[in-house]
């Protein structure tokens, strides 16, 4: 088959979709290399892949992979360029390359209009991560975002097959967009490969020194959007400080995430909140942390707390589990799918409940050890190999090639 892949987010590898794109392609290349014949030549049954990009990236690819880099005349990196690239430029390239299928690794406005004379319709498989803008309309705070969301929902409905990263997103598509369940397949993603490597003692110490921390802190990360509920983490922590003061079991709270107070009320102004709650001496706000430091930042924590109101999947929870860190999260959206019975849950709207669960973990070494082991073992069930293999299998089934 000739398969096109929208890999636009390779230029933004630090965000969630960028990581999905990067790890999917890495595994796809590995699978492709494994299928080489002994003489290094391509098998007649080997797929041909066209990797569609807005910018060139440093990526070693086998001979059956072809980078296709293009931009519309509107070069400014904004929603106008994004819509133009996804709706007009990309379908043209797919047609020029005579692709049997297109894989969109995120929800976008791409719709393939096949000419009637084209007997073999190009199949479109789209990965949908969440419906956050529809469920939280405050994200649609200007007309451009509203247009993009409307066009994306239209394209989701027109896709031949939809892959979702959780059963929660599957239910949302059925409920809010009226998608037929038979058109949807759940395909869990995984964490970045950096979390699969052992963190050395030297790296653990280096990260503690870099951020002036002592191991054993409470950690809250994964972004500062209001829906991720950092405010209630701080309010629950304040309750613990008021009730237990300088108890030996109550460590400092460390919060990481890009500080963007100018985007309030969509983003929590965490520094102002810390000051307002008089927690300046007890809370460390790190701002954005580079990916290479995050495994050690998790590993050095006593507990990771993530009471988000809504997640399409919940990557930060799985990142913490992969490092053997006990996790407290909300029993909402997709998060129980990730953690199952290996983590603790709280009511994200009840700061007293949140504080109680935090205290239970911090005061029990046995509970910490049990959660650490169970979470780590569950994290190993998620795999980029599974995600990539299932994706390609579905594409080939659609094309009648399996």
Q: What do you see in this structure?
A:
This protein is α/β, with parallel strands linked by helices and 402 residues long. It has 2 domains: 2-190 and 383-398, Glycogen Phosphorylase B (Rossmann fold); 194-379, Rossmann fold (3-Layer(aba) Sandwich). It has helices at 16-34, 79-96, 132-135, 143-158, 167-177, 201-210, 230-244, 270-276, 294-299, 315-322, 335-339, 351-362, 365-379, 384-398, and strands spanning 2-6, 48-53, 65-69, 101-104, 123-128, 161-164, 184-186, 217-220, 253-255, 283-285, 301-306, 327-330, 344-346. The strands form 2 sheets. Strands 3-2-1-4-5-6-7 form a 7-stranded parallel sheet, sandwiched between helices.
In terms of quaternary structure, the protein is single chain
Order of helices and strands: EHEEHEEHHEHEHEHEHEHEHEHEHHH
Radius of gyration, CA atoms, in whole angstroms = 23 Å
**Based on the structure given, which CATH architecture of the largest domain is correct?**
3-Layer(aba) Sandwich
CATH class of the largest domain: Alpha Beta
What proportion strand? 5-15%
Tally of helical runs: 14
What is the terminal-to-terminal distance?
Answer: 11 Å
CATH fold naming of the largest domain: Rossmann fold
Q: Largest sheet at a glance?
A: 7 strands, parallel
In one word, what is the shape?
globular
The total count of strands amounts to 13
- List low-pLDDT spans: 36-44
Mean pLDDT: 92
């Amino acid at each position: 088959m000739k398969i096109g892949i929208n890999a636009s987010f390779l230029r933004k590898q630090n965000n969630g979709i960028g990581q999905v794109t990067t790890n999917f392609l890495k595994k796809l290349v590995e699978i492709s290399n494994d299928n080489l014949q002994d003489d290094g030549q391509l098998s007649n049954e080997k797929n041909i892949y066209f990797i569609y990009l807005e910018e060139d990236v440093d990526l070693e690819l086998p001979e059956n992979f072809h980078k296709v880099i293009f931009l519309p005349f509107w070069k400014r990196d904004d929603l106008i360029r994004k819509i133009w690239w996804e709706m007009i430029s990309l379908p043209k390239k797919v047609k020029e390359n005579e692709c049997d299928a297109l894989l969109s690794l995120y929800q976008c406005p791409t719709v393939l209009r096949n000419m009637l004379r084209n007997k073999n319709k190009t199949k479109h498989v789209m990965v949908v991560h969440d419906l956050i803008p529809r469920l939280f309309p405050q994200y649609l705070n200007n007309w451009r975002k509203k247009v993009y969301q409307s066009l994306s929902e239209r394209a989701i409905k027109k896709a031949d097959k939809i892959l979702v990263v959780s059963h929660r997103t599957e239910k949302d598509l059925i409920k809010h967009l009226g998608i037929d369940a038979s058109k949807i397949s759940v395909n869990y993603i995984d964490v970045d490969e950096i979390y699969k490597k052992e963190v050395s003692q030297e790296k653990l110490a280096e990260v503690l020194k870099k951020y002036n921390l002592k191991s054993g802190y409470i950690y809250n990360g994964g972004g500062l959007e209001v829906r991720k509920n950092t405010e209630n983490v701080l309010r629950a922590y304040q309750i613990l400080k008021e009730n237990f003061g300088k108890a030996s079991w109550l460590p400092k709270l460390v919060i990481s995430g890009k500080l963007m107070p100018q985007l309030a009320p969509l983003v929590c102004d965490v520094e102002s909140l810390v000051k307002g709650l008089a927690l300046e001496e007890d809370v460390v706000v790190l701002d954005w942390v580079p990916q290479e430091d995050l495994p050690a930042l998790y590993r050095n924590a006593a507990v990771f707390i993530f009471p988000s109101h809504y997640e399409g999947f919940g990557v930060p929870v799985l990142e913490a589990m992969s490092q053997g860190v006990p996790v407290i999260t909300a029993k909402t959206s997709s998060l129980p799918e990730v953690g199952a019975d290996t983590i603790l849950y709280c009511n994200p709207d009840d700061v007293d409940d949140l504080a109680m669960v935090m205290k239970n973990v911090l005061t029990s070494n046995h509970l910490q050890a049990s959660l650490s082991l169970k979470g780590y073992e569950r994290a190993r069930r998620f795999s980029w190999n599974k995600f990539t293999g299932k994706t390609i299998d579905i594409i080939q089934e659609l094309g009648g090639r399996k």
